[in-house]
Amino acid sequence: GRWRWPALAFCSIVVGAFLVLPVAVLAYWTEQAVALDQPLDLPWEEVLNSLLASTLAAAIATLAALPIAFLPRRHPVRWARALERASFTANALPGIVIALSLVFFGARYGGIVYQTLAILVFAYVVRFLPQALAATGAALRTVDPRMEEAARGLGHGPASVLARVTAPMIRPGLAAGAALVFLSAMKELPATLLLRPIGFDTLATEIWTATSVAAYSEAAPPALLLVGASAPLVYVLAARRGADVGSAD
Fold first, then answer.
1. Distant-in-sequence, close-in-space partners of 127: CB < 8 Å, separation ≥ 6
2. Which string of b and e fits 2-40 if b means at least 16 CB within 10 Å?
3. CB 3.0-4.6 Å disulfide test: which of 99, 100, 131, 204 passes with 191?
4. Which stretches in the chain have pLDDT values below 70?
5. pLDDT, tens digit, 9 for 90 and up, residues 101-146
């Protein structure tokens, strides 16, 4: 009715303020760098470092979340529910707190793992495990346990049921959880600054280094690369969600 155009205008303002405007500002500062004849050395090594660390964190966090989400829904005992709830407490821990604790542990007891990619990825997993856990738990709630019981009755073992029945049904949820962890790890700064290996820079640290000295024209290109590296994954997830909704309808 008559509220159609005001509603469309409001949604357009939201999209413009939170998506179009930031990208336009980054494009403006990049254009300023070109106008000032500044060399645009795109940080491709930092892109690869960000993709590597974020991909490892997403894969490990998803694998770690699977048993934690599975136990309370298939074996709803008190300790299983308590374990799942305790895993969500990482949401209350800022990245700097996790990083400082791992710096102390690594310096005192970590030995060879201190200032390695392994401890950085571990920090990402601790920080963003709740995101993978929430998506995995939501996916498992859509699986009827009787389907798994029917597969067991047909002679399949637990591993076969998980691989052939449960996993295909929860695959979209696992992918969504992994994508959330990946996107969050790409942007994580405090843990990266404190735990990264020597010489291991990411897009987040590159942007922080430039903005800390107000060099916005130098920060804009890696910021655009960060958006560009994240946007395809977000688009695929949105398209997949739209396809799932359409098939459900």
1. 90, 93, 95, 98, 184, 188, 191
2. eeeeeeeeeeeeeeeeeeeeeeeebeebbeebeeeeeee
3. 99
4. 37-40, 238-249
5. 999 888 888 778 888 899 999 999 999 999 999 988 888 888 888 8
- Is residue 130 a contact partner of residue 93, using CB atoms and an 8 Å limit? no
Residue 156: in which H helix or E strand, if any? Answer: none
28, 31, 32, 38: CA torsion to nearest 10: 140
What is the torsional sign of CA 180, 234, 136, 182? negative
**C-beta of residue 58 within 8 angstroms of C-beta of residue 178:** yes
Six token digits for residue 2: 């008559």
Phi then psi for 215, rounded to 5 degrees?
A: -90, 70
Burial class (CB in 10 A: 0-12, 13-18, 19+), 108: exposed
Written as six digits, the tokens of 198 are 């020597």
Around Cβ 58, how many Cβ atoms within 10 Å?
A: 28
Give the CA diameter of the chain.
72
What residues contact residue 176 under an 8 Å CB cut-off, 6+ apart?
A: 135, 139, 237
pLDDT tens string 178-187: 988 999 999 9
From residue 217, give the alpha-carbon distance in Å to each of 21, 29, 59, 212, 214.
Answer: 16, 5, 34, 12, 9
CB atoms near residue 211 (< 10 Å): 14
Taking CA 176 as the corner, what is the angle to CA 161 and CA 152, rounded to the nearest 5 degrees? 10
Neighbours of 186 (CB within 10 A): 24
CA distances from 47 to 54, 121, 188 (A): 11, 16, 14
Could you give the CA distance from residue 167 to residue 160 in angstroms, rounded to a whole number? 10
